[in-house]
Amino acid sequence: MVKLTEQNREQYAQFVLQALNTADIQKFRDLFLELHPQDQLDFFLDLNNTQRQNLYEYLSAEEFAEIFQELDLEDQKQIIEELNQHYAQDMVGEMSADDVADFLGEIPTKRSNAILEGLEAKDAKDIRELLSYEEETAGAIMTKEFINISADSSIRDVIKLLRKKGPNAETIYYLYVVNMKHELAGVVSLRDLIIAEPDAKVEDVMSSRVVSVKTGDDQEDVANLIKKYDFLAVPVVTSHNTLVGIITVDDIIDVIEEEATEDLGEFAASRGATDITLSPFTAAKKRAPWIILLMFFGMITANVIGQFEETLEAVVLLAGFIPLIMDSSGNTGTQSLAVAVRSLALGTLERKGIGKMILREFSTGIMLGLMCAAVLMIIVPILHGSVWLAFIVGVSIFISLSIATVIGTIVPLIINKMKLDPAIASGPFITTVNDIIGLLIYFSIATTLLHLL
Description:
The protein has helices at about 5-20, 25-30, 35-45, 50-60, 60-70, 75-80, 85-95, 95-105, 110-115, 120-130, 140, 155-165, 190-195, 200-205, 220-230, 250-265, 280-305, 310-315, 320-345, 350, 355-385, 385-415, 425-450, and strands spanning about 150, 175-180, 185-190, 215, 235, 245-250. By secondary structure, it is mainly alpha-helical. The strands form two sheets. The chain has a three-stranded mixed beta sheet with strand order 1-2-3. The chain has a three-stranded mixed beta sheet with strand order 4-5-6. β2 and β3 (about 185-190) form a beta hairpin. The chain starts with 5 loop residues before the first helix and ends in a 5-residue tail after the last helix. The mean pLDDT is about 85.
């Protein structure tokens, strides 16, 4: 297998492309199948429609399945329409059940049913089972291609079983032991099998302390569990402890990417609109609710300023510090929001305690406020010749930043207690709330000390 470097990638690709264009099938297959799977994918994505049609003819359904299951969903939807029904069914039959379920769940029911009908009965049953679980649960992301063994099997027999079924299994590094009722009873690693005596029994080397997840567990919780224990795979069981599948670390990497993208969308108030393949209309539709809501919050901000119109008329210079107060409060609150959401996601909050985190962020806000106030107390008198103006702005910044850190910390905690994703306490939302509070503090202090300006 060839793993291309940046230096020889383009040259090698030209050789493969030339063989494809000249219909030199054997040469194309020799060159293409020597490529690393990721390089095969990169090569395929650069082909035009005619070249792709030739590639489908030159590669078997099994060989193309390796490429297809690595494509993005939108690309899969496009490519499946280019394949004839029989080739598509054969290709899907060679894919992992979890990858097939992910794909079929996103295409029209009529087309997915047609593909399922062409599969072997067992494969179709496994895929329908995976499709029956709720999205973003352990059951929905698990795979059915795993090997289970019985406790009374000999190590010699298990090794023979691995040679037979190993090539089609998702992973063989962990083998799960089940009893007569197919309940999860233990786990044995490949290393344990290799170093054990051939005549020994599985029960002699297995561990009965198995960490597992339920089919209905949230995928993010599964990801945290695998991260915590450094597992390569984790078994999935029903409420009755029946082993029904496994989740491997490569699937968890996809989950982590998906959850990170989702949280990024929440922070930016653009959930579901971060995919660059979306049309402008779809992206705008997904972003619009938050933008409209924040627009109304902006009207509240405008009303706050309007309530202190007389103060602004008396000292117009106060208006020049409005952006400074708003930006500082909003940015500080967003930083605390990020700390709180990350602590919730990693589970560190439970270990350190809510009170300690709030106190830490509040103390941080006080320190930031003092530093900013000190800078302003020096700069403002130099630029504007007013010590009292510097005092008003400095005190306002100090109080605003102290409160902003508490708000940025508490809001996601409250949302988490409501069993909602704390990331929905988005940056723009926290920023707007802190803008309003910061302005109220600023103008209240300025109005009180107006006679000194």
